[in-house]
Structure formats: structure tokens, C-alpha cells
Design a protein that fits this description.
The protein is an alpha+beta fold. It is built from 21 helices and 15 strands. The chain folds into two domains: 238 residues, GROEL, domain 1 (Orthogonal Bundle); 159 residues, GroEL, CATH 3.50.7.10. The strands form five sheets. Strands 5-10-9-6-7-8 form a six-stranded mixed beta sheet, with helices on both faces. It has a three-stranded mixed beta sheet with strand order 3-11-4, covered by helices on one side. A two-stranded antiparallel sheet has the order 1-2. Helix 4 packs antiparallel against helix 21. The radius of gyration is 29 Å and the shape is elongated. The chain starts with a helix and ends in a 16-residue tail after the last helix. The relative contact order is 0.17. The N terminus is likely disordered. This is Chaperonin GroEL (HSP60 family). InterPro entries: Chaperone_TCP-1, Chaperonin_TCP-1_CS, Cpn60/GroEL/TCP-1, GroEL-like_apical_dom_sf, GROEL-like_equatorial_sf, TCP-1-like_intermed_sf. It holds the Pfam family Cpn60_TCP1.
């Protein structure tokens, strides 16, 4: 049993460790802000700003992103949560808790007299070993109708059955190959609107409406042109415009441009999606011809339209090509519709890559925002599970990994083994917090699970948060995607080492403003 002094930090006179003690306290404060949301019995957090506006959520990244954080070490921890969200779309609370636990456990070893360099090296070894073991015990998912995938969606979707069904339908619609693509994120397919009916459809939504209400609101069997430029005449240099030759050149370019517009109409283009603005005369001509034009579309949406319809994004200079050459860049889709209440264009049935859009609705702006976050979490978890498989949830896998790390510690020579021990202790934290949030004694329950896991050589035993008894998480359907857990532990190991490495904190002087 460690003495009280070992937990209290350094003596007042030991200034060498004061930065570590300050950083550890700051990290602990950040973790305490989100730890109460973990697990099925986790509670919500109310965020209040200076104007009295309120957000009620149990989403870890939302809490960390909106809360006021001033301490530099605390900001490092918040950045870990943001990186976890950007990379995985889920697991921010777990990443935060693990990072805080690693800092706390590592600091305890330093306060006992272990050199900080040895602790950091040991944490690195322990984390790498745990990550290797994590991959060894992963359960793969081969089919998109796997019942575990549905369970993962249900759990990550905070047990909202309608959201989990939407996510699974969307995953099946885009297919396994698309889900495995490095740059594709299923969570990007989620769109929320307070007046929308929740649904999934095979297509995309452009976050813009048609140029004017005289253009058709609906078209079917549509030929699509995607212009990554302005749909305007080529510009003439300002200085040249002041000359007669320059003015003549401008008129010539305008005439050529209007001929291009006439050519596009004759080619029966039904939808033109433009990166920038559209010339007023061209707008009028295209409106009269019944062409739907969407201008100032983001690069992200432009790329999605091109991928889904099979079009190629071209510059306006390419529009001067012969119709036969332009045919190679034209895309196709079954339907285009302007949803005026949503102020978005719906493109469905594209001949290119499969896309799915998950449209999430709710009764109010506040509720729809939370449902959107939940749906994105579920979509991210489903995609992660398809890519890397799943593990028992509820902290069971981490507890089993802690047992393996403890064995590994005995093979590590020298004082680095104390850093490895810190990893083993930190891996207890997820189950400890889940049990505490459920209202049970963590010390009693976690020790009971450890004993039974060892006896049965199991990695799936945890605590039933309703009854408080030891139960098999796999049998209960409580599972988590491997990539989410893997990235959380990996990121936690990196940031904890960075924080422990800080020897002192020095306030920088304000630099004078540079004079032009």
C-alpha cells in the first residue's frame, strides 16, 4: 500500500517537480468534466455561456470543445480529444480518460523517485505492447449484415433504434469496398434538419438551392456538368480594357461564351454545378432552356457530385471543346430535386460511385443537433468496426489488456518497468468509471471481474450496469470497434509522454507589434 505522501506529489520545496504536479492537476480537471458521461448510465453535462445559452449533452468532444480551457497542459488533452474525433469520430471520452490516467499514474512513479525519462520509456513500451495484444484479440466483421455491426450501431447511437437502422442501411448501400476507402467517412453522409423526415437514400445532398425559382425544381434522367470554376466569360486584364483592342477582345470573349452556353443547352445538359458565380445572361439562357444551375458549391460537394454521377470536374476553358470531347466529362443521374424547405439539392441514382445520405430530423434545432452528433458517432463506429473488427465493451477488453501488460512488466528490465506498471493501472480506468457512473463500488466490482477474468482466461467479462453482477459483455451485446479503442490508447500514450516530459512552464513575454 502506497503512503499518503506518494499520492500527494512533491514536497513544497521541490521546485523541479512543481510543473509536473500542476500539469497533472490540470489534466485531472479536464478528465473530471467528461468522465461522468461514460457508459450506459452516464449522465449529461450542461454547458452555459456568458449569454445564458445552454447546451445539454453527454458527447465528450462537444463538452471539451465548448468548455473554457486556459491551462496549456489541459489544452494538450483537449487537442487529443479533437484528434480522436477527427480521425475516428468516436471514443473521445475514453481517449481523454486514458491520457489523464497515464499522466496521473506516471506522475505517481516520478514522485516516488523514478526518473521521468524511465517512466516515459516504460509507458511507451507498455502502450505498444497493449496495442499489439489488442489487435490479437480483435473479432473481425466480414459481412455488413453481421448482428454485431447492428449492435455497435445501436450502442454508439445511444440506443436510438431508428438512428442505428438508418446507419446500417446507409453502410449496406455504399458497400464494404467504399467503407474501406481511406478518405471516405460514413459520418460525412449525415445531414440533419429540424423539418426533415428521417430517411436514407442512395444519393447526395448539395448544401445549396437552385439559382432562381424559375429554374425547374425537379428533373429526371439528368445529364450533369460539373464546373470547378466560374461560369462566366474569360476575363480581360483591366489595363487592356482601357484600349480599343482590349474592349473588342472582351466582346469577342462574351460572344464565344454565349456560344458555349448554347452548345450546352443543345447537348441536353440538365444540371450544371458550379464552383463560383454564373454570368447573368447565361443564367437567363439556361433558365429559359429548363436547366437547373447550382452556383458557389463547396469543393467538398463538388467532388461528391462528380464521384456520384461519374462526371469529371472541368475548368471553363475546357467548355470550348467540341461536343464529342465534352461527352467524356458528362455525368448522369436518375433524379435531381430542389428541396426548398431544406435549401438543398438532392441528387440520386448517380451512374458513378455509390453514395448514401442519412437525413436526420427532429422537432427542434436543439434536439436535431444532438441527434446529428449521435448519428455521426454511430456511423463512425460502424465504419471503424468494418475496418478493424470489435472488442468487448464496458472496459472489459482494457481490463484484460491490463492483465497482459502486468505480465509483460515482469519481463522488462530496470526502472522502465515502473512506466509499464503505469500503463497497466491506467487500463483499469475505463471500467472503474463505467462502474462508478452506474452507482456501484468500483473497487469491489473491478476486483471481482479481474479475479473471474483470470480464472476463466476471458477478455469479455465485465459488470452488468443494471444489476451490478459480473457478466459477459459479448453475450450482452456490449462491444466497441477496435480502431476506436486502438487510436484512443495510442493518442493517450503520445500526449501523456509529452506532458510528463515538460520540466518547467515559462510565461513568454509579449512581442512588440511589427511595424509595416
Amino acid at each position: 500500500m502506497e503512503s499518503q505522501k506518494e499520492f500527494a506529489g512533491p514536497d513544497k520545496g521541490d521546485s523541479r517537480l512543481s510543473a509536473l504536479q500542476t500539469n497533472t492537476s490540470a489534466v485531472r480537471a479536464i478528465a473530471s468534466a467528461v468522465e461522468g458521461t461514460l457508459g450506459p448510465k452516464g449522465l449529461d453535462t450542461m454547458l452555459v455561456d456568458n449569454r445564458g445559452e445552454v447546451i445539454v449533452t453527454n458527447d465528450g468532444v462537444t463538452i471539451l470543445d465548448r468548455m473554457e480551457v486556459k491551462h496549456p497542459a489541459a489544452r494538450m488533452l483537449v487537442n487529443v480529444a479533437r484528434a480522436q474525433q477527427e480521425e475516428m469520430g468516436d471514443g473521445t471520452t475514453t481517449a481523454t480518460l486514458l491520457a489523464a490516467a497515464l499522466v496521473e499514474e506516471g506522475a505517481k512513479q516520478v514522485f516516488r523517485g523514478v526518473p521521468v525519462a524511465k517512466v516515459i520509456a516504460g509507458i511507451g513500451k507498455g502502450v505498444r505492447f497493449a496495442l499489439q495484444k489488442m489487435q490479437e484479440i480483435a473479432r473481425p466483421i466480414w459481412e455488413l449484415d453481421d448482428e454485431w455491426l447492428q449492435r455497435i450501431a445501436f450502442t454508439a447511437g445511444r440506443e436510438n433504434e431508428d438512428i442505428s437502422e438508418l446507419v446500417i442501411e446507409a453502410a449496406q448501400m455504399v458497400g464494404r469496398e467504399k467503407l474501406m476507402e481511406k478518405n471516405f467517412k460514413l459520418c460525412d453522409c449525415v445531414v440533419a434538419h429540424p423539418r426533415a423526415e428521417s430517411e436514407v437514400f442512395a444519393g447526395i445532398l448539395i448544401n445549396k438551392g437552385r439559382m432562381n425559382l424559375q429554374m425547374p425544381a425537379y428533373k429526371h434522367d439528368v445529364r450533369v456538368l460539373v464546373v470547378g470554376d466560374a461560369l462566366e466569360p474569360e476575363p480581360v486584364d483591366e489595363e487592356a480594357l482601357a484600349t480599343e483592342a482590349g474592349f473588342a477582345r472582351q466582346m469577342e470573349l462574351k460572344d464565344e461564351f454565349l456560344q458555349v452556353i448554347e452548345k450546352l443547352i443543345q447537348m441536353d445538359i440538365g444540371l450544371i454545378v458550379v464552383d463560383r458565380g454564373v454570368d447573368p445572361v447565361a443564367e437567363e439562357m439556361l433558365t429559359d432552356a429548363g436547366v437547373m444551375v447550382v452556383q458557389r458549391v463547396s469543393h467538398h460537394d463538388l467532388a461528391k457530385v462528380a464521384d456520384h454521377t461519374g462526371a469529371r470536374i472541368i475548368k471553363r476553358s475546357a467548355l470550348r471543346k467540341m461536343p464529342e470531347e465534352l461527352e467524356t466529362v458528362i455525368g448522369h443521374c436518375d433524379e435531381v430535386e430542389d428541396h426548398e424547405p431544406y435549401q438543398r439539392i438532392r441528387v440520386s441514382g448517380g451512374r458513378g460511385k455509390p453514395f448514401a445520405t442519412i437525413l436526420v430530423g427532429a422537432s427542434t434545432e436543439e434536439v436535431v443537433g444532438e441527434r446529428e452528433r449521435i448519428c455521426k458517432d454511430a456511423a463512425s463506429a460502424v465504419q471503424a468496426a468494418v475496418r478493424g473488427g470489435f472488442l468487448p465493451g464496458g472496459g472489459a477488453a482494457e481490463l484484460a489488456l491490463a492483465r497482459e501488460v502486468e505480465k509483460y512488466r515482469d519481463s522488462v528490465q530496470g526502472m522502465e518497468r515502473f512506466g509499464v506498471a503505469a500503463v497497466a493501472e491506467a487500463l483499469h480506468r475505463p471500467m472503474v468509471q463505467v462502474v462508478a457512473n452506474a452507482g456501484f463500488n468500483p473497487l469491489e466490482k473491478v476486483e471481482a471481474v479481474k479475479a473471474l477474468q483470470l480464472k476463466r482466461q476471458s477478455d469479455s467479462l465485465g459488470i452488468d450496469c443494471d444489476r451490478g453482477n459480473v457478466a459477459d459483455m459479448i453475450e450482452m451485446g456490449v462491444v466497441d470497434p477496435v480502431p476506436v479503442k486502438y487510436h484512443a490508447l495510442q493518442a493517450a500514450g503520445e500526449v501523456s509522454a509529452a506532458i510528463l516530459r515538460i520540466h518547467t512552464i515559462v510565461k513568454m513575454r509579449d512581442l512588440p507589434d511589427l511595424i509595416e
